[in-house]
Amino acid sequence: MSRLDINIRRLETQRACLNALADLVRDLPGPILELGLGNGRTYDHLREILPGREIFVFDREASAHPDCIPDAAHLLLGDFHETLPQAAARFAGTVALVHADVGSADRQRDARLARFIAGFLPDLLRPGGLVASDRDVAFARAQPVPAPAPAPVMPGTYFLYRRAGPTGPG
Amino acid sequence: MSRLDSLIRRLRAQHACLAHAAELMGHRSGPILEVGLGNGRTYDHVRELFPGRQIIVFEQFAPHDPMIGPAGDDLILGDIRDTLPAVAVRLRARVPLIHSDIGSGDRALNARLADFLAQHLPGLLVPGGVLVSDLALPGLDAMALNLPPGVSPGRYFLYRRR
Q1: Radius of gyration of chain A measured on its C-alpha atoms
Q2: Could you give the ipTM of this predicted complex?
């Protein structure tokens, strides 16, 4: 499989996962957190499929296309190691969806970052709150959410979880 | 349509056009040209479609990771307007497939590059050779082919030397 094939499958998996979680999040109040703005593609997708929802974006810098950069109140710039602890206090137990697209070519670095993010998810998420990530951020009280079907999902590309709790199906 | 949708559509169009072009190209021999390396995605795909084939790549700047492009003389660095003319003479009527993907958000630059490519690329093709381009190339209407199913008009362009 070529890098073009892999890219297409990865992006289609990402889109299928976000669309599936968006269907669940519509009935779940609370802000959405996008960890990693990158070039703004998935931020643009999230705001399109979840119109009117408040989305807070976290990244070290805003290097996206100018149309895909949120306003200053919704852009939390800095290292995750500083911004996530602040967010955990600010959004405690209210977040409906966290999307973390944070993977790099460095698997060890990614595993450390995934564990770090996972440590904050139970505090951030409301009961029934959802997580989609390109790295495994399994957290305490996480329930796996089945991958959307039928969809062109590439195994191991995306990880979906829900915080156990009284709200939401499952 | 979000930017995520848009990228998926673009890559799907690329994939479908390259598959279609590979079919049209058939068993014609000769080097393949990739105009624009970018992050090496389609170079990798063309390499997989045509194992062992010489692929000459034009790119403005050296790639951040040398592994994503060809080694040695097959990677031609610099402004395409400086580097292509000599190659166009050397490989005249010898190339069975050209994939050109150098469009950007700069419309004025795209128009200048399209004029330049339209002038230099067709002469490289062997009879029956195929040119796949992300930019519409002016003046080549007589060479234009229909796009494969699933690719929206205007997203990619296919030309063939008769």
Answers
A1: 15
A2: 0.93
